[in-house]
Write a structure and sequence with these properties.
Layout: H1 4-7, H2 12-47, H3 57-105, H4 109-114, H5 117-137, H6 139-168, H7 170-180, H8 182-208, H9 210-215, H10 219-271, H11 277-319, E1 336-343, E2 353-360, E3 364-369, H12 376-383, E4 391-396, E5 399-400, H13 406-410, E6 413-417, H14 427-432, H15 440-449, H16 453-457, H17 476-490, E7 494-498, H18 506-519, E8 524-528, E9 540-545, E10 548-553, H19 555-561, H20 564-576
Parallel strand pairs: 3-8, 3-9, 6-7, 7-8
Antiparallel strand pairs: 1-2, 1-4, 4-5, 9-10
Bound molecules: adenosine-5'-triphosphate.
């Protein structure tokens, strides 16, 4: 028995709905035979004068009313069929989209290292749309046709088995041809899908990088690679359509050869007086009625094989293990401890962090410094459990972060990154993301504390101003202050600041320093700063180099030590005097 739930990755409800849709479709198919049977009976009556018999008008009126009843039944069956197939398939696709998005949210960041955004977008939108289309337009019809054709075949077998055999014997051969060519079709579909993904990726890259492309004069080169990807997608689409076309047309010809066979067998039986003219004509009419849906089925079958690629991709995504953990534990203290931590992003031989043993005290500022690529951001990502360590443990208040549910852990942390993510929504809602339960007053208070109030009030609609995709209508400093307002509203006990004041003009920097000083009061703060003068007053400075801790202590101690920190600090102080 076909396990539709597994094949099409359905929810329990979706599976039940699909079964109902198949039954509804089969009923529609069978109901369509009613007007057909009435028509044949009328046809038989009308032919009676040719056999020197009289038309029974009494019977004709009866058939007329039967015809009306049949039409009403067809209408009701179609209505039911529409509701069961289309509405339920759209619901199922919506549920699948939501469960994919939910699953993606819980995946470790290592997953995103190997996937690009266009592939995930295709997963959520494209694959689900394909599933929606095929669950509503293909699967119920295909299976319902199979059921109704089988029923009709059995009925005709009882009536005249030789003619029934002649009508249907070509059908399984045609289906077997499509089935056995599925490997070729799969290969063609796979290549087509890959070329589609590549093209989507290139279009996305082109649009996202349009500023750099223009400013660096890369129009020709980048356009060439986009053009190549689009041409390849076209080539693969044509190749797939051609390959599928040959297989489908071939199988349709096989089915239609049944017409010749039926005529041949019919003529043979008629000449031997083994069948009468009217039943013979009836069989010819049946061929016309039955072959139509079978030919349609043969064109639908490759679509089903094509869907399999999308479903396989969704299955891989949904079976990728998520990051789980306890969401009941309450953290009482916020000191952070790294014990013998080793970490690598992809390859275990290339450690981004090696044997890290550090303590980040609560209620104080700890700065992570060191040359570019030394592992500062990696430490902050591990604290937030964006990734899990390869070896060792990270504890917050004595609790191993690996045992905590990532979303629960996140409720204890606020982030202020340099590359602020803002949504195409009002300023008010962008700040409120920090705490969805906050009142209007609290949002405004946070905005004031983050020095946002001034520029917000100058905007045409104040807090209700829509700020464009990723805050495109704001300056870098304004965007950063909004992200600080968000963090202030969240009021989490641990604050992670990543390059928060880099690349800002002096005025903005003053505002941001003021906002930050309010944000960090009484919190466990981890700052990643390149400009060492901003962290001179930190309670602890951890110096990293090549993924290892090389020095630790306060500013004065490290300066006296005359090690890496002192060297970096000196170079930066000297560079302050430079002019271009
Ligand atoms: N997502 C990633 N996948 C693979 N390798 C990564 C990833 N992110 C960082 N790395 C590598 O890990 C090492 C440490 O990177 P990290 O971002 O922690 O450095 P950093 O000290 O914060 O650098 P910077 O100051 O330039 O931001 C680098 O060699 C970097 O190339």
């Amino acid at each position: 028995m076909l396990n539709l739930k597994k094949i099409f990755l359905l929810t329990d409800k979706g599976h039940n709905d699909l079964k109902k849709a198949i039954i509804a479709c089969a009923l529609t198919n069978l109901s369509l035979m009613l007007p057909f049977a009435v028509t044949i009976q009328i046809f038989v009556e009308l032919l009676k004068p040719l056999m020197n018999e009289e038309i029974s008008w009494h019977k004709m009126w009866g058939l007329f009313f039967l015809g009306i009843i049949a039409a009403v039944l067809v209408f009701l069956a179609n209505k039911n069929d529409y509701k069961k197939t289309y509405v339920t398939s759209y619901n199922e696709a919506k549920n699948t989209r939501v469960s994919i998005a939910e699953h993606i949210r819980k995946l470790p960041m290592s997953f995103f290292n190997s996937k690009d955004l266009s592939e995930l977008t295709t997963n959520i939108m494209g694959d689900c749309a394909k599933m929606e289309h095929i669950l509503s337009h293909v699967v119920p019809q295909l299976l319902a046709n199979t059921i109704s054709i089988t029923i009709i075949t059995i009925m005709l077998m009882f009536f005249e088995w030789r003619m029934a055999l002649a009508v249907f014997c070509t059908v399984p051969i045609a289906f077997l041809v499509v089935w056995f060519s599925r490997k070729i079709q799969n290969r063609l579909s796979q290549k087509h899908v890959e070329s589609q993904l590549k093209a989507t990726d290139k279009v996305q890259e082109y649009l996202e990088g349009i500023k750099v492309i223009k400013s660096c004069g890369l129009d020709g080169e980048k356009f060439k690679s986009l053009d190549y990807a689009l041409k390849r997608m076209k080539k693969m689409a044509i190749r797939m359509e051609f390959g599928t076309g040959v297989i489908v047309t071939g199988s349709q010809i096989i089915v239609q050869s049944g017409i010749g066979l039926t005529v041949f067998i019919g003529a043979f039986l008629l000449s031997n007086n083994q069948i009468e003219t009217i039943p013979l004509l009836m069989f010819f009419l049946i061929i016309m009625r039955i072959y139509g849906p079978i030919l349609v089925e043969l064109t639908l079958l490759p679509e089903l094989l094509y869907l399999q690629i999308a479903i396989d991709r969704m299955r891989t995504l949904l079976s990728t293990p998520t990051m789980e953990g306890n969401s009941e534990v309450t953290l009482e203290q916020y000191n952070i401890e790294f014990q013998n931590v080793d970490f690598s992003y992809n390859n275990e031989n290339e450690l981004a962090l090696e044997n890290i043993n550090i303590t980040i005290p609560s209620d104080g500022i700890t700065a992570l410094v060191g040359p570019s690529g030394c592992g500062k951001s990696t430490i902050s990502r591990l604290i937030a459990r964006f990734w899990d360590v390869n070896q060792g443990t990270i504890k917050i208040g004595g609790v191993d972060v690996k045992t905590l549910d990532p979303e629960h852990l996140m409720s204890y942390m606020s982030f202020v990154f340099q590359d602020v993510i803002l949504f195409n929504d009002s300023i008010f809602n962008n700040i409120k993301i920090g705490n969805m339960n906050a009142s209007e007053e609290e949002v405004i208070q946070a905005a004031k504390a983050a020095c946002c109030d001034g520029f917000i009030n100058k905007m045409p609609k104040g807090y209700e101003t829509i700020i464009g995709e990723n805050g495109s209508t704001l300056s870098g400093g304004e965007r950063q202050r909004i992200s600080i307002a968000r963090a202030l509203l969240k009021n989490a006990p641990i604050v992670l600041l990543d390059e928060a004041t880099a690349s800002l003009d002096p005025e903005n920097e003053v505002y941001i320093q003021e906002a930050l000083s309010r944000l960090v009061q009484g919190k466990t703060v981890i700052v990643i700063a390149h400009r060492l003068r901003t962290i001179v007053g930190a309670d602890k400075i951890i110096v990293l180099n090549n993924g290892k801790v090389v020095e630790e202590g306060k500013h004065d101690k490290l300066i006296h030590k005359k090690g890496m920190y002192e060297r970096l600090y000196r170079i930066q102080q000297e560079s302050l005097g430079w002019s271009v």
